[in-house]
């Protein structure tokens, strides 16, 4: 499956952004999806994941209540709505796909998209 992330940019602290990830090549609803991020000098970290049917979502504690992951299986698009952004959210954000939500949450999804830069100014 091919993944194309978009929607990053520069935003002030407290602002919002919505990331999108367009998928192609396979049956989208068969795949659990996730968002990860990597800040400068740090390892890539899990942000959020969602099951193939969209019924269950999981978040890292630091974004719970501020970020929402969703998907549109009719359009083959994954979203990450990011509200109340903080400077520590600055990172390159990656979308990922895997046949198991367990593997996605474990950062072993199988498929990665290219990153999109999110910069939050203070």
Summarize model confidence as the mean pLDDT.
96
Rg estimate, integer Å = 13 Å
Approximate shape: globular
If helices are DSSP runs of H or I spanning 4 or more residues, what is the number of helices? 1
Structural class label: mainly beta
Q: What percent strand?
A: over 45%
Distance between the ends: 37 Å
Q: Main sheet, how many strands, which sense, barrel? A: 7 strands, mixed
Low-pLDDT runs of 5+ residues are: none
Number of strands: 11
What does this structure look like?
The protein is mainly beta and 122 residues long. It has one helix and eleven strands, in the order βββββββββαββ. The strands form two sheets. Strands 2, 4, 5, 6, 9, 10 and 11 form a seven-stranded mixed beta sheet that branches. The mean pLDDT is 96.
How are the SSEs ordered, and which strands pair?
Blueprint: E1 2-6, E2 9-12, E3 17-24, E4 32-38, E5 45-50, E6 57-59, E7 67-72, E8 77-82, E9 91-98, H1 101-105, E10 111-112, E11 116-121
Parallel strand pairs: 2-11
Antiparallel strand pairs: 1-3, 3-8, 4-5, 4-9, 5-6, 7-8, 9-10, 9-11
């Amino acid at each position: 499956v091919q993944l194309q992330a978009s929607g990053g940019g520069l935003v002030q602290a407290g602002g919002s952004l919505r990331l999108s990830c367009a998928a192609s090549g396979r049956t989208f609803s068969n795949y659990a999806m996730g968002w990860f991020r990597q800040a400068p000098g740090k390892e890539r970290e899990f942000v959020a994941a969602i099951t193939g049917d969209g019924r269950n979502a999981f978040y890292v504690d630091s974004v719970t209540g501020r970020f929402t992951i969703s998907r549109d299986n009719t359009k083959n698009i994954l979203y990450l709505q990011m509200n109340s952004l903080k400077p520590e959210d600055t990172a390159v954000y990656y979308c990922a796909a895997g046949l198991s939500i367990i593997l996605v949450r474990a950062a072993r999804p199988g498929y990665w998209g290219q990153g999109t830069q999110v910069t939050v100014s203070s």
